[in-house]
Write a structure and sequence with these properties.
Layout: E1 8-9, E2 16-19, E3 22-23, E4 35-37, H1 40-44, H2 52-64, H3 86-117, H4 122-147, H5 155-161, E5 164-166, H6 169-196, H7 209-229, H8 237-260, H9 262-267, H10 272-287, E6 293-294, H11 302-321, H12 326-348, E7 353-354, H13 359-362
Helix pairs in contact: 2-4, 2-7, 3-4, 4-7, 6-7, 6-8, 6-10, 8-10, 8-11, 11-12
Length: 363
């Protein structure tokens, strides 16, 4: 672990910095992007034969590298940052940081997977290599946009200092499939909105979202094909429970996080709640192509429960911000943690929708 110097706030930046021009990472919470590691030996030993042809077809798409010339900055970036008011600058930099961290997380995981399984599972390794290439481009492009605001992330520092969460391979499949597909719907929804309302485009990075989201979509298609090659991940009662669990945690995390930073969406002319409801509905529908069950997001209590979690998280933030001793803070937070757990249990036990009943609508 690399030792860290105390972070300080540079006058005028509004953010803590590790050193001038390098933003200190945000405090890790349940809502911040995570870095993952997995059982590399188990990944290397996977038999792809049940769906090898589809995986090879996906890999051929990666080889074509459709976006190799896409992420090139143009003159529209010159001076764009200076046009934003201080509050919009703040929320936009937070968006860039979170997006960059998420993309870099994918890069690290895919790169390490490619390196560790290259000799024993070359097709899988090649796919992960191409996905790490894409994620590196995305992260670098976002970090350059942060530099327009006088700040950047030290990605080497993050690599060495951020905590890594261990997931078994099947959990990596669920989490990354949903991350990539939800990323597609997030980017394309913003792009289409700004096409109709160019007056809301606060920064030229949004010009790149249409092609960008196609990378996310292809990555999701890869994990779709990979899960088909490992049928136990999407068949049987245990798989049904895990698919529900990951759908719920991904949707709830996104909704609570986005509502908490609704000012960013307001800055680009969107309502955070309506935006998330659209993205959740589309991702849920897309997931029915591979998951055996999906969530009933139209159930009357679904968003009622999520709103209660939003409110509880606000009160948790208030408790954390107080000057009380640590034990008192813990006691004040406990009822809200328990309340959130109860709401998540209620959400989990809403009867799911069998994906077979949705097939005519999603194809």
């Amino acid at each position: 672990m690399v030792s860290t110097a105390p972070a300080s706030a540079t006058p005028g930046s509004g953010f803590e910095e590790l050193r001038p021009g390098v933003k200190a990472p945000v405090k890790e919470t349940i809502l911040t992007p995570r870095f993952y590691t997995t059982d590399f030996d188990a990944m290397a030993a996977m038999d792809l034969q049940p769906n090898e042809a589809e995986l090879e077809a996906v890999c051929e798409e990666f080889r074509k590298d459709y976006n190799r010339h896409h992420f090139v900055r143009d003159e529209e970036f010159d001076g764009a940052a200076e046009k934003l008011d201080p509050e919009t600058r703040r929320v936009f930099v937070e968006f860039l940081e979170q997006s960059c961290t998420s993309e870099f997380s994918g890069f690290l995981l895919y790169k390490e997977l490619s390196r560790r399984i290259k000799k024993t599972n070359p097709l899988l390794a090649e796919c992960f290599q191409y996905m790490s290439r894409d994620e590196a481009r995305h992260a670098g492009f976002l970090n350059k946009s942060m530099a327009d605001f006088g700040l950047q992330l030290d990605l080497g520092f993050l690599t060495a200092n951020k905590e890594y969460t261990f997931f078994q391979p099947r959990f990596i499949f669920y989490a990354t499939y949903l991350s990539e597909k939800i990323g597609y719907w997030r980017y394309i929804t913003i792009f289409r909105h700004l096409e109709k309302h160019p007056e809301d485009k606060i920064f030229p990075i949004f010009n790149f979202f249409e092609n960008w989201c196609q990378d996310e979509n292809r990555h999701g298609d890869f994990f779709d094909a990979l899960m088909k090659s490992q049928p136990a991940t999407v068949r049987g009662p245990i798989a049904r429970l895990w698919c529900r669990f990951f759908l719920l945690t991904v949707f709830a995390t996104m909704y609570v996080r986005d509502v908490a930073r609704k000012e960013f969406y307001e800055a680009i002319g969107l309502d955070a709640r309506q935006y998330d409801k659209h993205v959740i509905a589309k991702t849920n529908e897309t997931s029915a192509r591979i998951f055996p069950v999906v969530l009933n997001v139209d159930h009357p209590v679904f968003y009622t429960c999520l709103e209660r979690i939003v409110n509880n998280n606000g009160r948790l933030a208030d408790a954390e911000a107080g000057d009380s001793p640590g034990v008192m803070k813990l006691l004040r937070k406990l009822p809200f943690w328990m309340a959130n757990t109860w709401e998540m249990v209620r959400l989990f036990f809403i009867k799911p929708i069998d994906s077979k009943t949705l097939q005519p609508a999603i194809r």
